[in-house]
Each structure stands twice: as structure tokens, then as C-alpha cells.
Task: inverse folding
């Protein structure tokens, strides 16, 4: 760690400019917090989770829709088969009733065919009932999934509205903070501002701290007596750095020197 004595640092800046750094740090910290709030809104996580859930639900809904369509087609086919077999049975019964078949062997054959047709009708009607039951279950599944998708869409719309309102509020606060930051930055020497920006990038956004009650406002560590002695003897325009955290250290009336 750099333990270079504070008095050897050459950077100079008017004490008012050094105090202005504290205002700049407060504004930048506020902007950092606003950006963090913008990126970590609970609505964003819930929207992401619900969007994934909706994708899965909609896939199941499409599968259920396909199942309903397939079963509907199957039911139409079974219904048609039943109608065709029943129509054939009616025709044969009418021929027998009208006496159009007089040959005993033909009558016997026809009677056997009618019995066969009845068995076929019974089998087809059983199939018809089974398909109807499956179709009813498939339609219930489709209705349930459609309702879930619609409910999810409603919730996503609510979350999107809440997100957009919060984003608008946060963006407005960020614009206000940026507007306030401009004049502060304009009044700072270029070399001091450059040092501040470098430290912000390397110190998790905290580049400067006020010296209050013999404590660094950047890292919250107390200064040892030798460092405090160096600070007391430093010119007012000298830009100080805390030996422990290397942040800019700004003297204030509450420094306790």
C-alpha cells in the first residue's frame, strides 16, 4: 500500500473546490443509488419469471389445442362411421320389411348381417363415448391453460405499468441529479476532477470523504495521530489523500483538527 506522506502530494486546489467535491460525491452517490434501484426493481425479476412461466404455459396450451383439434376430428370420423353403419342397417331392415328378399338363404344372410351391423354400431358408439370423454377432458385442460395464460398476461400488464411508472420517476430523478451535477463539475479544476473520476472508478464509486471527528468519510476509518499531524500542517489548498484508503480527504469545520 502507498504510504507516501500527505505533504508530498503536489495537487493543489482551492478549499472551496475541495468542498465542492463533497457535493459532487453526494450527487454521484445519489445517481448510483437511482441506477441501482432502476436495475433491481422487484417488478423486473417478477416480469422475467412470469415471462418464462408464460412461455411454458403457452406451449402447453398449444399442445392442448392440438389435442382438442385431433380429438374433434376423431369424433367427427366416429360419428360419421356410426351414421353410415346405421344408415346401412336401416336400408337392410326396410328391404326385409318390404318383402324384397324372399329367398330363405338370403333372408338368413341378411339377418346375420343386421346382427353384425348392430354389433358394429354398439362398438362404434362405445368408441364415440370414449372419444367424447377424452375430448371433454382435453377441452377442460385447454380452458384451464387458456385461463392461466390470460391471468399471467394480466399480471404482466400490471407489472409492466408499475415498472414503467417507476422507471419514469427514477429517470426524472436521474435527470434532475445530472442537471445539479453540471454546475458543480463546471466549477472544478480539471486535474482535481480527473483524480476524482479515477478514484470513483477504482473505489466502488466513493472517491472522496469528508474528514469529520478525525474519521475518513470514505472508508469510515479513524486517522492515526501522525496522519492528523500531517494534515494540520498541510496548506489549505493541498489536496489530501487518506493513507489507508487513498481517497481524497476533504477538511471541514467538523474535522476535529
Result:
Amino acid at each position: 500500500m502507498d504510504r507516501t506522506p500527505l505533504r508530498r502530494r503536489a495537487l493543489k486546489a482551492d478549499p472551496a473546490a475541495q468542498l465542492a467535491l463533497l457535493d459532487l460525491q453526494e450527487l454521484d452517490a445519489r445517481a448510483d443509488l437511482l441506477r441501482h434501484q432502476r436495475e433491481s426493481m422487484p417488478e423486473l425479476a417478477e416480469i422475467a419469471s412470469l415471462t418464462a412461466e408464460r412461455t411454458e404455459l403457452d406451449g402447453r396450451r398449444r399442445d392442448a389445442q392440438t389435442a382438442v383439434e385431433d380429438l374433434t376430428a376423431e369424433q367427427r370420423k366416429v360419428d360419421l362411421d356410426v351414421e353410415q353403419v346405421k344408415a346401412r342397417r336401416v336400408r337392410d331392415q326396410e328391404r326385409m320389411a318390404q318383402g324384397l328378399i324372399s329367398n330363405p338363404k338370403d333372408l338368413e344372410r341378411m339377418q346375420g348381417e343386421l346382427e353384425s351391423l348392430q354389433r358394429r354400431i354398439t362398438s362404434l358408439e362405445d368408441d364415440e363415448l370414449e372419444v367424447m370423454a377424452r375430448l371433454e377432458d382435453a377441452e377442460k385442460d385447454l380452458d384451464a391453460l387458456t385461463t392461466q395464460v390470460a391471468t399471467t398476461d394480466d399480471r404482466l400488464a400490471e407489472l409492466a405499468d408499475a415498472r414503467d411508472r417507476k422507471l419514469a420517476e427514477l429517470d426524472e430523478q436521474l435527470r434532475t441529479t445530472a442537471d445539479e451535477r453540471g454546475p458543480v463539475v463546471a466549477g472544478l479544476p480539471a486535474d482535481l476532477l480527473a483524480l476524482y473520476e479515477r478514484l470513483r472508478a477504482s473505489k466502488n464509486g466513493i472517491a472522496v470523504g469528508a474528514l469529520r471527528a478525525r474519521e475518513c468519510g470514505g472508508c469510515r476509518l479513524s486517522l492515526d495521530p501522525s496522519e492528523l499531524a500531517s494534515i494540520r500542517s498541510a496548506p489549505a489548498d493541498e489536496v489530501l489523500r487518506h493513507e489507508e484508503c487513498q481517497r481524497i480527504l476533504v477538511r471541514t469545520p467538523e474535522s476535529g483538527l
About this structure: The radius of gyration is 42 Å. The chain has two domains: 6-38+189-251, 41-175. The domain at 41-175 is CATH 1.10.287.1700 (Helix Hairpins). Helices lie at 15-39, 42-97, 104-186, 190-202, 225-233.
